[in-house]
Amino acid sequence: MHKYRVMETWRKTTFLSQQGKIESRGWTLDVIKCIEQLKSSELSLNQLYKFEFELARKHPQNKFVKDKIRQQLQLLRDKGFLDLLRPGHYKLRD
Hints:
By secondary structure, this protein is of the alpha+beta class. It has 5 helices and 3 strands, in the order ααβαααββ. Strand 2 (about 80-85) and strand 3 (about 90) form a beta hairpin.
């Protein structure tokens, strides 16, 4: 069962290879890492905003970090990585 879960998680992230700019993939991966640090299947936008300063250090050229976090959550939702429960609240898709 563990092998299946790993393969399914990998399948959900294959869209990253289709993203044009490496920078875009970096943002997406960085937000996924933040989500993983929460260690919960449900998360909120406010929880991810707590990573704002960490993400700003990784991406100093971006002056709109909260906007970028929201954008990446929308992307992850659209690609089937997350489900939107209600505005600002998400669940990792099984």
